[in-house]
Amino acid sequence: MHIVVCIKQVPDSAQIRVHPVTNTIMRQGVPTIINPYDLFALEEALRLCDRLGGEVTVLTMGPPMAEDSLRKALTFGAERGVLLTDRFFAGSDTLATSYALSCAIKKIGEAWGPVSVVFAGKQTIDGDTAQVGPGIATRLQLNQLTYVAKINEIDEEAGTVEVERRAEGGVQVLSTRLPVLVTMLEGCNEMRRGSLTHALRAASADITVWNAEAAGVPDVGSCGLRGSPTVVKRVFAPTPRAEKAEEIGRAGMSHEELAEAAIDELFARHPTIEADLRDFAATSQEEWR
Amino acid sequence: MVEERFDAIVVGAGPAGNAAAYTMAKEGLKVLQLERGEYPGSKNVQGAILYADALEKLIANFREDAPLERHVIEQRLWMLDDRSYTGMHYRSDDFNEEKPNRYTIIRAQFDKWFSQKVREAGATVICETTVKDLIRNTKGRVIGVQTDREEGTVMADVVVLAEGVNGLVGQRAGLREELKPDTVALAVKEMHFLPSDVIEARFNLKGDEGVVIEAMGTVTSGMTGTAFLYTNQESISVGIGCLVCDFKESGEAPYALLEKFKAHPAIRPLLEGSEVKEYAAHLIPEGGYDAIPELYGDGWVIVGDAGQFVNAAHREGSNLAMTTGRIAGETIVRLKRTRQDFTAAELSLYAKRLEESFVLKDLKKYRRLPGFLHGNKERLFGLYPQLLSKAAQTWLRVDGTDKRAKEKEIWAAFRQSRGLKGLLGDAYRLARAWR
Lengths: 289, 435
Ligand SMILES: Cc1cc2nc3c(=O)[nH]c(=O)nc-3n(C[C@H](O)[C@H](O)[C@H](O)COP(=O)(O)OP(=O)(O)OC[C@H]3O[C@@H](n4cnc5c(N)ncnc54)[C@H](O)[C@@H]3O)c2cc1C
Known about the structure:
The complex is a heterodimer. By secondary structure, chain A is of the alpha/beta class. Helices cover 33% and strands 24% of the residues of chain A. Chain A has seven helices and 13 strands. In chain A, helix 3 (94-112) packs across helix 4 and helix 6 (255-269) packs across helix 7. The mean pLDDT of chain A is 89. In chain B, the strands form two sheets. In chain B, strands 3, 4, 5, 6, 11, 12, 13, 14 and 15 form a nine-stranded mixed beta sheet that branches. In chain B, strands 1, 2, 7, 8, 9, 10, 16 and 17 form an eight-stranded mixed beta sheet that branches. Chain B is of the alpha/beta class.
């Protein structure tokens, strides 16, 4: 089975700072990572290949340095990495991005065999739109399964797939036909470590680099800034709130005493919490029985 | 086990490991470098002053693209008591030369750049991979390493241990002893963000000029240690460190010491209005010449902090790391060319070349210094800074006392607290330790 996983290189948001004077985002020196949501998709793809055989192609669109994220993906065991990079792609919003990626996925299918599943993360941590995955599905006319928590079964022969999808108020069990686009929910698996052999291979692997032409993009006018109707009107940092910290407990108290003091204080300030918690404990006890 | 075989495996991607890997890869050896951090530099802490000479000998044109912060044009040495400092400053326009001699750097960025050069030279660099142990053949010769990944053993003709001060791999393999608390310092450090124009105004700088301050005195409360403050482009690095055994004995917390240093009337105004960016702690080997372990054996050599190569008196570490890494690399290239076997006898060439270099000459020169500093810590990091400050103040205050009386008062203060014999003894011991 041939699986394509779309990933994005993003700044490690935990390490982004706002310049105290100019109030702009300081990108310089901020390390980049693979969008954390994409790792769940990649791991799920690798697991499918472990189970059913096949290979994973990892695809990203970004500046030349996004190659690092593909190399990283190879250390986990992906077969190859494809980097879409071209000045035509610069400034793409979700519409233009899904256009370029879908062209590349078509091309990947031609080069390395038909693609049964395209995976994407639920969303990115630097855009939070959750639009690119569904955009690709629409353009390639794939069935789409979003917010998937578990893949129950894939039958390649029969061309069917069954998944569990997290929805408000419950879990939906859905099945559809391949090929399919899946966006994976966070927390559904844990990324593997990758063997030393994989790590070595990743270090010296050739990454496939495609510009718009090589990726078979027919209309560069639909790419990049020109193909992006989204307009960002203003970026601002929320003003920090100043709240005084209070000290609970005294020096010399044991850990238990400190915990007690903290709980007492909490209950005292939010009088309903204690009762709510008791109710909750009682009902869940009953359900348990 | 990995099938691919290497000429050399380098453990660690700090300055020592990078220098060794770069030297060997550039000469066409097949090199594998393993680093446990997420990326080279992610684990590394340094003040940090970069000494150009050691890097120039590896990458002559490093100034073109290395992430350098400021070149150092002024050095301050301060003796602190609780309220004052007695200092020596040296500033010279000669340091504004075409190829400056010292720079401040930020290690995380610098190490990443250095590692890129290592890759470009042709070495295979793998991060997030910890070397657990060395593999030996039946004769005890080191033939490879065991990592924490699956299928994690890999073989090579020779292993370069550049794993930094802790040296756990060397220890586990029985090549060296455990670190002793009286030969290693624990340093804590903060980065304070400040706009560059504020730094330049505050330290009287223009462009890329920088200032470094080294300080010692009562701020370490009688413990053997020093503090520093270095100017970067848009931040200030400030830190303090003391011998681990002194921390243990006094029960003082390292971060509390740093708070004390930052609150000192001489330091506080320099940091005012800054935002703390990061906090880090790291060990520094300070045992000097006598703490150096066995440096080579059948199939292995030790370089950098792992070999205790730090000249604490001059705050030189990274340059010794780069130099030992380079010399080990050159030795291995030479042995490889002549188809040698990397036995201990052959690798002894490495130690011989170190003896001839500034590295072992300097460490030998200061051989007695660690013992002197530690043995006289209450006086050096308590009494003398106080006496010095008091002397300066007595001398400078104009209060109707005649100068001869002032001289007498100063002299009396020294004699009362230490006695003539004590003073002479300390002076003699210092001179001897410095020789
Ligand atoms: C606060 C402070 C300030 C300093 N200031 C200066 C200064 O201003 N100038 C100066 O020249 N020196 C300074 N030093 C000293 C300098 O930092 C060191 O001498 C230098 O970093 C030593 O280089 P190294 O490559 O030997 O070790 P390190 O830089 O410690 O690198 C060792 C590397 O090995 C990796 N590693 C360790 N174990 C394993 C393993 N088992 N498997 C894989 N990888 C492993 C580590 O992650 C690390 O990246 C300072 C040190 C400190 C702590």
